[in-house]
Amino acid sequence: MKLTPTTEKFILHWGEMGSRWGVNRTVAQIHALLYLSPKPLNAETISETLGVARSNVSTSLKELQSWELIKGVPVMGDRRDYFETHKDVWDIFFAIAEQRKRREFDPTLSVLRECVIDGDDDPGLDPQTRQRIQNTLEFLEQLMKWYDQIKTISPKTLSKVMKLGAKIQTLIGK
After folding, report:
1. What is the DSSP string of 106-122?
2. 49-89: pLDDT as tens digits
3. Last residue of a domain, which of 60, 85, 110?
4. Residues 10 and 72 both lie in one domain
């Protein structure tokens, strides 16, 4: 597969951003390549296109599958595994958000709940510290409830809400 200067720039930047978000650069580049590709790709093509070791591609594909960002698809007449990703940015956004919630927010909420309960029995805990823990828990619980509601809204409606921006204040009142 031949990359144009534009696709190469996009893929390289996506890899750079991935590393800033805590994702392996190669994993992010493979995701970008699959996103831009008009058809599913196999590991050999990915390896050749990006100039990455085949073993690194295999590991990266498994990582992307664990994030539910890619899936294997059969190609008639070929026994190799082919992969594709979501082509809609909203699907990508929600797949990443769901995994971040599961991997980061859910465990944090569990620990915060334990800290609030433990704080009731901790005579050395400063009341202000306990309140800050409680406030953090309440904020994250509220954020997760909001997220659960947002993910049920159609992308078309979400786009309209995003375009409203700060104007939404005038709609709901200050």
Report:
1. HHHHHHHHHHHHHHHT-
2. 999 999 999 999 999 999 999 999 999 999 999 999 999 99
3. 85
4. yes
